[in-house]
Amino acid sequence: MAKKSKKLPLAYKPIGFALGWTSGTVAGMAFQKTWKIVRHEDDAPDALDRDRKWGEILLAAAIQGAIFAVVRSAVDRAGAKAIERSTGTWPVPDKGGRD
After folding, report:
1. How far is CA 49 from CA 56, 57, 64, in A?
2. What is the DSSP annotation of 17-72?
3. pLDDT at position 89, please?
4. In which domain of life is the source organism classified (predicted)?
5. pTM metric for this prediction
6. Which of 5, 20, 21, 68 could hold 27 in an S-S bridge, CB 3.0 to 4.6 Å?
7. pLDDT at position 14
8. Strand, helix or coil for residue 99
9. How confident is the chain (99 residues) per 10-residue block, as mean pLDDT?
10. Biggest CA pair distance of the chain
């Protein structure tokens, strides 16, 4: 059983990558919809947009960061739980966490 738990994190890497990509896409869509609700605009401000004020840019960054963190954590956790249910082993070492 020890070999299985040592090799599983390596095998989980491609799954984790796919989950990360998916969560980024979902978070991006959620942010666009949220921004449209918050500011009634289709496009969120970019940090280098000359016509936007600091407050708008920082608000957009804070909302985007919160959404990305929540979605990524939810997807990571759901993926890890699915691996644990199917293999009986948690997909990362006991210390856990991201690299």
Report:
1. 10, 9, 16
2. HHHHHHHHHHHHHHHHHHHHHHHS-SSPPPTT-TTS-HHHHHHHHHHHHHHHHHHH
3. 84
4. Bacteria
5. 0.77
6. 68
7. 84
8. coil
9. 56 82 93 94 91 94 96 90 87 67
10. 59
